[in-house]
UniProtKB/TrEMBL annotation:
Record keywords, A-Z: Membrane, Transmembrane, Transmembrane helix
Organism: Magnetofaba australis IT-1
Domain Inner membrane protein YgaP-like transmembrane as annotated: residue spans: 32-89
Protein name: Inner membrane protein YgaP-like transmembrane domain-containing protein
Transmembrane segments: 39-58, 64-88
Gene3D superfamilies: 6.10.140.1340
InterPro entries: YgaP-like_TM
Amino acid sequence: MDAGCLSKVLAFDANRSMMSDYTPFSPSPGENAVSINQIVMIVAGFMVLLSVALTHFVHPNWMWFTVFIGANMFQSGFTGFCPLVIVLKKLGIGQEA
């Protein structure tokens, strides 16, 4: 590392946070804040965490719930078929990405 690069690293502006350039998504009035794909990923992640917790704290057979979620995510990646998307569309939740 040369002296010029090192001086740039050492001259880090402590008043500037790492998130200063971040602007959260703000939807227009009447527009949904998240897409259907985001909702699916949130629900899938929650279900995986829930099933692992149930496996650990309740009974080892809950692991089959984790396997089901993983298999559904796997097939959805190839086929594009996701039951949750159908339910969300019928409920009018989320927006197309």
